[in-house]
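Subject: Transcriptional regulator

B.,
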Amino acid sequence: MDLQTATAALGALSQSTRLEAFRLLVKHEPEGLAAGEVARQLDVPQNTMSAHLSVLTRAGLATAERHSRSIIYRADLDGVRTLTLYLVQDCCGGRAELCAPLIAELTGPCCPAEGARA
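Prediction pasted inline below.
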């Protein structure tokens, strides 16, 4: 990831409706949600929500797939992972013990570390 891509992703999340939409999509992984359902749950007009979801998609934070007459949006977890790694790639100047609490929280109950017991 480069600075421009990271800035676009963070900019997409800097707007409250998009941040709420993104968090809602994460909550509904891996099934995703139809654009209309995202709009309904967040009480936002459908055309406005479509614009917000397009911004998240262009920023690499969501994906869209047409299913019949609906467009199903999903959080792009690979994009989130890439952004998170970019943000902490030089974590604590190479002192891994300082980053341990952050890593432990990121691999908490919802996403157990490989080999860890839930």
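The CA atoms of residues 60 and 79 lie 6 Å apart.

T.
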